[in-house]
Here is the input.
Amino acid sequence: MSQHYPVIIVGGGQAGLSTSYCLKQSGIEHLVLEKHRIAHSWRNKRWDSFCLVTPNWQCQLPGFTYPDEQPSGFMQRDEIVDYIERYAQTFAPPIREGVEVLRVRQQAIAAEFELTTTVGSFTADHVVVAIGGYHNPKIPRIAERLPSSIKQIHSSEYKNAQSLPEGAVLVIGTGQSGCQIAEDLHLEGRQVHLCVGSAPRSPRRYRGKDVVDWLDAMGHYNMPIDEHPLPNSEVRSKTNHYVTGRGGGREIDLRHFAKAGMQLHGRLTEVLSDGGKTELRFRNDLRQNLDGADEAAERIKASIDEYIAQQGIEAPTESPYEPAWQPSEALSLSLDLEAAGITMVIWSIGYELDFSWVEVPVFDGKGYPSHERGVTPVRGLYFLGLPWLYTWGSGRFSGVARDAEYLAGCIGDRHWWSRERPRNEVKSMALTP
Here is the structure.
């Protein structure tokens, strides 16, 4: 016999918990199903020195803003886990941990969704899929061509330098994780080779403030995706700017890494093996990618300069940026794996979406759900916690509250309306958006 709830939330991270809080405030009965434990990804999919890249004051979960005394600091991994656990303790969400949802489908006649899980079946009038957008670690098939003697992991498996075999490490990818892991290894004295992609970088501080403070004052974090100058699909697929909160917060300039001995390369294009020798080949785009990252940082600075001038704000000026290092014109585009002493490869090229278990026709050709602020065309099905679901902060602590409150309001309107209608009439509207 299925257990029925007005609302079932899939996922017990910050998005699912935020939704639960808002529904509880509205008096709407619901259940949260979490495959692992609260804060699982933060606890198990981050390295030991991991910390937020946005300041603590941006942690604004509904009913629970950042409670400690370092609003301009950057919480480390264990502090983040503690923050989420304390949040749950404040309102006691109706959560069942260790329950995996294997399938969600809409019943053909009833205005209900059926959820198949590892502990049995459930039905619900509304389902909120709140598992974020980082599902399957991405490792390309070129990895199969590396020798079996080379250990390979995804960035989500990295913990610390001591857990890796001795030798040089090749980090592939320069998004936030790749750059921060490369820095972590470099600071631990490991020889690092880094394949540099086209990810942009951000300044950390500029003209007397953290850049996040300036962008917040400029309204950047409140801009809805529909007002962004780029198409929605492009915005949602863009790589985040790399920067770090480590050591109180600093920017990451890969040129400084190179000057200090890190070996930078362009994108990996080929792995060739011949007679026991393995050669890596790289695209000739290192200079282009470094310049592109710098240009992104300079555009952010220019927008801040414009804002300061428009508002008549007194702020200290800064000297123009000067690159600390340039790749040689004779930079080699190949590398002998064994001669370089590389024993470890860390893939840091992101994740792939996997909503295959949601068997409801709301997805586009790339598996992304069609929605307006998380509300799908199928009545009663919602998504929360995706990057740029509505604003820049939708997939972060800073903006998930706004999205959760909006979805809870939509659910509440439909929930209380349905309680006042004859059940056969509600069923007949099952597919009405």
Observations:
- The longest strand covers residues 120-129.
- Residues 42 and 81 are 6 Å apart (CA to CA).
